[in-house]
């Protein structure tokens, strides 16, 4: 078991998610037409826990869809590529769309997704992340709702994994690497 340092407790996460939910409600109640639902798009796998908490903190009608993306490192070019392994199932044209992602790191995944969704002409497109990790950002991405900001480090828990482990931890921890 890797050594880890506690960064945000389950209580701290719940408080921040509640604040984001209030903010999102205030912002979208102005733009949604009567009877219209916000469409939250969760990025699998990492975002599923944040997604489940966030949508319940938004006191508005919310519809959900999921997309699954992986970014993989190209050994030859040292660049990363984003691959979609599960597409959306809903039509997003004309919809108010909120992307829900676990963490923004280099920014590659979110940029890919923003471009992919923009082409489908949503009425609006915003991004919510549980963690904004700034140090390795390669392309600027605008993050509309951020629960926590950190500089760097590898985080686990609350949906975030390290080699498919630790997703089910309730708190967010930083993996401590000895060297
Ligand atoms: P990006 O394309 O570099 O922004 O990376 C995005 C993806 O990498 C996230 O959706 C996560 O799945 C994964 N990732 C980046 N940093 C971490 C971390 O600290 N812990 C766990 N997963 C991470
Ligand atoms: Mg992810």
Order of helices and strands: EHEHEEEHEEEE
Largest sheet strand order: 4-3-2-5-6-7
Instruction: State the helicity in percent bands.
Output: 10-25%
Bound molecules: inosinic acid, magnesium ion
The structural class is alpha/beta
What's the gyration radius in Å? 16 Å
Structure in a nutshell:
23% of the residues lie in helices and 35% in strands. The chain has 179 residues and is an alpha/beta fold.
Task: Describe the 3D structure.
The protein is 23% helix and 35% strand. By secondary structure, it is α/β, with parallel strands linked by helices. The chain is globular. The structure holds inosinic acid (IMP) and magnesium ion. The site of magnesium ion (MG) has 3 residues, from loops.
Give a topology summary:
Layout: E1 4-8, H1 10-29, E2 38-44, H2 48-57, E3 62-73, E4 80-86, E5 96-104, H3 108-118, E6 124-133, E7 145-150, E8 155-156, E9 172-175
Parallel strand pairs: 2-3, 2-5, 5-6, 6-7
Antiparallel strand pairs: 1-9, 3-4, 8-9
Helix pairs in contact: 1-2
The structure holds inosinic acid and magnesium ion.
Task: Record keyword descriptors for this entry.
binds magnesium ion; 179 residues; six-stranded mixed β-sheet; globular; three-stranded antiparallel β-sheet
